[in-house]
Design goal:
The structure holds 2 protein chains of 2 kinds. By secondary structure, chain A is mostly helical. Chain A has helices at about 5-25, 40-50, 85-120, and strands at about 35-40, 70. Chain B has one domain. Chain B is built from 2 helices and 4 strands. Chain B has helices spanning about 5-30, 100-130; strands at about 45-55, 60-70, 75-80, 90-95. Chain B is elongated, with a radius of gyration of 22 Å. Chains A and B meet through helix 1 and helix 3 of A and helix 1, strand 1, strand 2 and helix 2 of B.
Chain lengths: ~120, ~140
């Protein structure tokens, strides 16, 4: 099997997690003292793609082990000691949701390809 | 992805903003109430939000809750109106110091935050529905 499923699975996992983090930011947009969080999943995906085998006897991992990096935004502050920028978070969330849906579309296409191959 | 927890987070935000909206509504409604349960003019109220981490969550989801409804202790406005039944011996009535403009601004903020929570909910729902389509056709 090619790497595609593994990478798509990682993409879906990370975008799913990020959706949660962004939802939390939006929910806490008016909570005093709350700090906006984010997951840098692009980096995690990078790790995913650059797992290199240094020895031919190494197994290629089936289980993506990269840990998403949760970062907290320290800069900026509103009067209520909170630094959530609502518009920015909504934009991030829309982008994230579209990325997830694109991932699902690609996965569906891949499944369809395999199904076609089996049918011939 | 812990889909249902995503919905919980958005729902907690909607509930919290709705409660804030109720408080603002009662502030506006009581802008001229000179009597209250605890005696004296109505005191304007404010909600304080706090973060509650969802139990059993590996991905650090934070819901929100109304921590407390606090009373604003600003002094009342004294209006000269000797005909008023609550007037003191000099003819002054203690009116709640409620600035309707301030309340309206708070209300708009609450409304926008509520809308943002609904947008989050819909976005998560779109993702979930898309997942259900996986492997169809």
């Amino acid at each position: 099997m090619d790497n595609g499923f593994r990478i798509l699975e990682a993409l879906l996992r990370f975008t799913g997690m990020r959706q949660g983090v962004l939802s939390s930011n939006i929910a806490n947009a008016d909570t005093p003292g709350y700090r906006a969080k984010d997951i840098r999943f692009e980096n995690s995906l990078d790790n995913e793609l650059t797992i290199k085998k240094t020895d031919p006897r190494h197994l290629s991992g089936n289980n993506p082990g990269a840990i998403p990096v949760l970062s907290t935004e320290e800069e900026g502050e509103w009067l209520d000691r909170n630094n959530v920028e609502l518009d920015l978070e909504i934009a991030k969330m829309t982008e994230n949701s579209l990325l997830y849906q694109a991932g699902i579309n690609m996965l569906s296409t891949k499944i369809r390809m395999f199904r076609n191959a089996l049918r011939r | 992805m812990d889909t249902f927890n995503l919905f919980k987070v958005s729902a907690s935000a909607m509930a919290a903003q709705r409660e804030r909206m109720n408080v603002i509504a009662s502030n506006i409604a009581n802008a001229h109430s000179t009597m209250s349960e605890e005696g004296g003019p109505y005191k304007r109220r404010d909600v304080i939000f706090s973060t509650v981490p969802l139990e059993d969550n590996p991905s650090e989801l934070d819901a929100v809750q109304v921590e407390a409804v606090v009373k604003d202790e600003r002094p009342p406005r004294m209006i000269y109106d000797p005909q008023h039944p609550d007037a003191d011996k000099d003819g002054f009535v203690a009116m709640p110091d409620i600035n309707v403009l301030e309340e309206m601004v708070n209300m708009m903020t609450a409304f926008r935050a509520y809308e943002a929570a609904v947008a989050t909910f819909n976005s998560s729902k779109a993702m979930f529905m898309k997942t259900l389509e996986l492997g169809r056709q």
